[in-house]
Design the sequence.
């Protein structure tokens, strides 16, 4: 027995995986919602904004972004950025994003898809990205029935692979956003009608996974 | 000094999933008990996450997490006060000594560098970062540990 063998024999290599959930619980972040539950919260918030919009649109039209006028909407710290404009369903849409301190502990990012600053249509969502989540999404249907999916992802992601409930996959490139929004990029694409997002995976330049959101 | 942004939970998770067996092996070497080692790894990662806002970004995140796990394992060992280490505190090896006892007979710093080198496969710079000592000290400590083990192996009677 030489020294190297002695050391090697001292402690066996154990084929164990440990428990990440236990680590998170001990760290005191287990009381937060799981990413998937948080996604549900995000979508619920988006619905709430849409519902509220009908009642507030008339007032909002002359006071900047319509969604900021809805009661309960997290207010921005800094400007609301239009990170990209897209033409979907024969109409132009703005993808907006801003940081808020509405939930101070989560450094939330709010983002949305809106017809225009005053049009009063579209949807909005907020989530902790990058933070608790490395990628998330907002999905919905345009007036012509076209589905879309939009969201932030950590800035190491060059692409986002969207897996649908029918097993199909859609790869879309990410794009840069203003630095004030933090170390993130965005992605945005349309999907087939009735498509349901099952999983999101952010992929780095080398194809390595850098972000994931799964149920 | 440019301070990097607070590490994300996903970075810790990736490290945990990729390196768990190494963390566990080092912790077991330090605690001498696999159950205590499992607990030390969990606690070390949990502490690192709780203190993630204090991470200065001076070195790789992995080194910082290693230091948290090593500290958790050392504290676990102190709590348990393994009697064997006290018996061999003078560094002599009794006649019926085995490999476990030989390793445990080393001073703590020597055991640390041995485990981090052989079980975690860390290089000298990383070990220095984890332990908060100079790179030269890492090399010297590792040489001393190997020399002590060689010497004690020769002292152990062979059947």
Sequence:
């Amino acid at each position: 027995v030489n020294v190297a063998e002695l050391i090697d024999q001292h402690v066996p290599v154990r084929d164990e995986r440990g428990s990440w959930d236990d680590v998170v619980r001990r760290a005191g972040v287990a009381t937060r919602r799981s990413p998937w539950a948080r996604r549900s919260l995000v979508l619920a918030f988006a619905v709430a904004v849409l519902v509220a919009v009908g009642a507030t649109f008339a007032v909002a039209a002359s006071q900047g972004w319509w969604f900021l006028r809805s009661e309960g909407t997290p207010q921005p710290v800094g400007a609301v950025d239009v990170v990209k404009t897209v033409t979907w369903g024969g109409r132009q849409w703005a993808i907006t994003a801003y940081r808020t301190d509405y939930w101070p502990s989560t450094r939330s990012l709010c983002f949305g898809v809106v017809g225009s600053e005053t049009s009063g249509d579209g949807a909005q969502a907020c989530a902790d990205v990058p933070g608790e989540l490395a990628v998330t999404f907002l999905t919905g249907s345009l007036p012509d029935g076209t589905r879309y999916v939009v969201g932030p992802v950590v800035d190491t992601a060059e692409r986002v692979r969207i897996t649908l409930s029918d097993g199909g996959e859609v790869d879309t490139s990410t794009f840069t956003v203003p630095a004030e929004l933090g170390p993130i990029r965005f992605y945005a694409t349309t999907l087939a009608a009735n498509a349901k997002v099952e999983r999101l995976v952010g992929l780095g330049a080398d194809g390595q996974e850098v972000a994931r959101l799964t149920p | 000094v440019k301070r990097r942004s607070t590490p994300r939970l996903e970075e810790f998770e990736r490290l945990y999933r990729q390196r768990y067996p190494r963390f566990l092996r080092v912790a077991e070497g330090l605690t001498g008990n696999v159950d205590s080692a499992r607990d030390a790894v969990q606690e070390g990662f949990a502490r690192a996450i709780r203190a993630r806002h204090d991470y200065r970004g001076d070195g790789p995140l992995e080194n910082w997490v290693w230091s948290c796990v090593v500290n958790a394992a050392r504290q676990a060992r102190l709590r348990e006060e393994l009697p064997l280490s006290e018996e061999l505190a003078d560094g002599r090896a009794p006649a019926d000594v085995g490999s476990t006892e030989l390793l445990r007979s080393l001073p703590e710093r020597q055991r640390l560098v041995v485990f981090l080198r052989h079980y975690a496969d860390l290089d000298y710079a990383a070990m220095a970062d984890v332990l908060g000592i100079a790179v030269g000290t890492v090399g010297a400590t590792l040489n001393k540990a190997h020399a002590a083990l060689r010497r004690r192996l020769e002292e152990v009677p062979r059947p």
Remarks:
- The CA atoms of residues 53 and 102 of chain A lie 19 Å apart.
